[in-house]
Amino acid sequence: MAISRNMNTDAAYNCLIAAGATVYGACGAMGNIFAESGFNPRNLEDLCEERQGHKYTDDTYTEAVDSGEISRELFLHPMGDSRQYGYGLCQWTSAGRKAGLYDLAKQKGVSIGDPAMQIEYMISELQSKYRSVFYVLKTAKTVQEASDVFLTKFEQPMDTGSGVKSKRAFYGEQYYMLYQSENEKEEKPMSLISNSGHDENGRYSGGRAGDQTGTEWALIPWYSRPWKCVLRYPNSAVRAKIAELAVKAAKNDLVGYDQSQRDTYWQHLKASNYDPSQITVACEADCSAGVIANVRAVGYLLDIDALKNLKATYTGDMRKAFKAAGFLVLTESKYLNGPDYLLEGDVLLNDGAHTATNVENGRYSGGTSGVNTNTGSGSNTARNNVSDGQKWLNSNYGDKILKYSGAKLRVDGDYGDKSRWAALAVWKDLMNRRYGTKLDPTNKNFFESCKKVASKATVSHGTQGTFTFLVQFILAAKGFYFGNMDALCGDGLTAAIKSYQKSKGLEADGYCGANTWYALFN
């Protein structure tokens, strides 16, 4: 089977890139997926088909699982014993991993062979149980590097020898040629969406209230879900307000993701003047609950009855309800396959699966965005890393920085007193909101009182979020960190922490705890 592009490969590539993978990382993973299943999400391991006596094909097996003819238990153990066989894009094999796949399909009400659901499950595994693999995908500088770790630590087949590594990396290189050549034809500007997708554990329920990692509800690059339609309100002022609320919700770490507590966001939004930035109590939404709540809030803010009384309840009925409330339903491919023709406030929808809010005007849309969403892109030089850090802080905490220090940061790559103060103000503010401390963000000093509570914000290998980003920012400024500004503590940041600790006479354990925080800010 020849390597080629199709909807499944495009979806996997776009989702991996949106999650933070480099082009090399995405293509290295995709080469492995091709080797496992040929990118067929319904693929049943051939050996299982043979031992089933050819009772099932890929399609009839999938349909039998969907209908219940094959029970959950039999899906986990296809032969009714301890033998295990693979299924799906990644050929998930063990009972535990297949259980997660099965449960997600049932939870979302889609086929076990649904490619979008399987790609979502793969990303959630990478972000939770396979973080070391995910770190390599996000930092890889060659396809071989990414392919090898995806093979040996994520797929884990019986044979991981040099021949298998070479073959899978070759597949990955073919995808790299397909996708990278397209990227080189035309450099497309990044466009952001406000996306509520998972809890701090990469799951859909069971986490703590609020955004523990800064990624539960966040501003991320546009990606192909794929989207089935775009819901657009005709009035530009309404769209701008929808985008504004979506950005504010993404920036407030008190707003997280949990399907079992999805209505608490709306409750606190109502109690906070319909302004997500004013929410002061940890709460939860999910993708549809968040979008629907924001649109209703706009109805109250702009006194539009149709929006106040929006009848939508989940992704499955949003198209009909939004249309009844006055939204246009756009289904042309130019609106679904990229952000170029989107307007701020457009609602992206995959019926029954996912929704998000576009917050910037596309380059061919004819609109002018009024929402401030600038973010950093990552760099390998200290000065560029500091610039990216300044952009990121302005984008995600600009209101806090303005409140406590009087002005947003000048993005110049210089880490002076203002950048240090901004970082410290964000650190103190987050400590107060997350842990109930009573630190003064307007004070430029990191006193012993700060040091006493700093262990609550320990950064170590595998942690992610704002505290981790601040360590990257400061260590980049001090000349110790040159990796990606991705808010993830991987091998590179851990090594940088150890080097800095050693330079300060601290125990070089790679943990940024109380003593290391004290040194960083003093």
TrEMBL record:
Region (Disordered): 360-386
Residue ranges, compositional bias (Low complexity): 370-385
InterPro entries, alphabetized: ELLD, Peptidoglycan-bd-like, PGBD-like_sf, PGBDSf, Phage_lysozyme2
Endolysin-like domain ranges (all copies): 193-364
Domain Phage tail lysozyme: 8-178
Domain Peptidoglycan binding-like: 471-520
Pfam families with a match to the protein in the record: ELLD (PF25309), PG_binding_1 (PF01471), Phage_lysozyme2 (PF18013)
Domain of life of the organism encoding this protein: Bacteria
Official protein name in the record: Spore cortex-lytic enzyme
Organism from which the protein derives: Fusicatenibacter saccharivorans
